[in-house]
Amino acid sequence: MLAPPWIAVPPPGYGGVEHVVALLAHELTRRGHLVTLLAAPGSQSAAQVCNLLPEPHSDRIGASVFEADHVARAFAAIDHAREDGLAFDVIHDHSGFTALAMADRIYAPMVHTIHGPFIAETSEFYSANGHRATTVAISEAQRKQAPPAVRGSAVIPNPIAVHDWPLRRSKDPYLLWIGRMAEVKGPHRAIDIARRSGRQLLMAGPVQPAQEDFFQSEVAPRLDDHCVRYLGEVGGQARTELFARASALLMPIRWQEPFGMVMVEALACGTPVIAFPEGAASEIVVQGQNGYLVSDEAEATRALSELHRIDPARCRSSVASRYAPASIAASYERVYCKAAGIGRPRDAEPRQRFASANGSPGKRALDASAGPTRSRHPAARR
Questions:
Q1: What is the pTM of this model?
Q2: Topology adopted by domain 16-159+324-380
């Protein structure tokens, strides 16, 4: 399991991909597979953890020098494992673009989850490189936007363990917006909705380097200590409480969001979602049952008056089975088996392993890690 190089797994705060990797690595290990997680320093997992870079780079997300270095070290560790007689059956890549571009240079078949949107640049990239691995889309909306080279991808949504999120039936009056401070995420539109409705809005999430100008011009001037409050990046228990206590999560996006993990996290807490029908929002939000799909700020404001019709327990149940880690892991098992050319796992044997001795790198592979700390977890072996 190759995670991105930017943030530890699981993430201390922001980190949607890292949350997905953490849940999937844990569930696959629980199901009896030997899983090695190649990730940023500070990562913890029931899987065996191999840190690659000396430090994480959460302030440089997207910088090609760190992604390339991370993937090069990962491929070296994977090669060393094979030389030590512990070859991997499959590599599951979540790291970005570099690993997919080089997937046919490594011995093990690769499964690559497409976590980002299809814009002109990424569509061209996948058109040229998508054939190098087995690709997986995270929503039907994303697959529909894909170039022909990857349009036949399996669709496996992101998992969530609802028991990690508190269900709160009695809500506080505030609205919540949470995410990166990017224009496409709509923080300024969330402020408009809150102002129109007369409700308090709490905002949380990182301001990344490329987003500073937008934040300073469109968000910061409209903040105050009462109506619109910005909490910065929030993690841990404080983050779950923000979701659980909110009367609604606002998702006024104007882009093809591939999934939108914050919507699923809110629903797990029994918090309804009011979203624009872009990207995967229409797959996650069930109109009138766990939230409302609205066309603009005015319609979002009207939907707020209908929140009393939404049952928090129904919000939670709407994601509990659809995105359960066990179901998502089973779907990936089928993709892994097809990519590796081995027998399909049988439902009656959920703990089936792949090749008899495969799945964990040898000592030299772990020694190839440049990270100052490395952990080997007993739970990685049965």
A1: 0.86
A2: Rossmann fold (3.40.50)
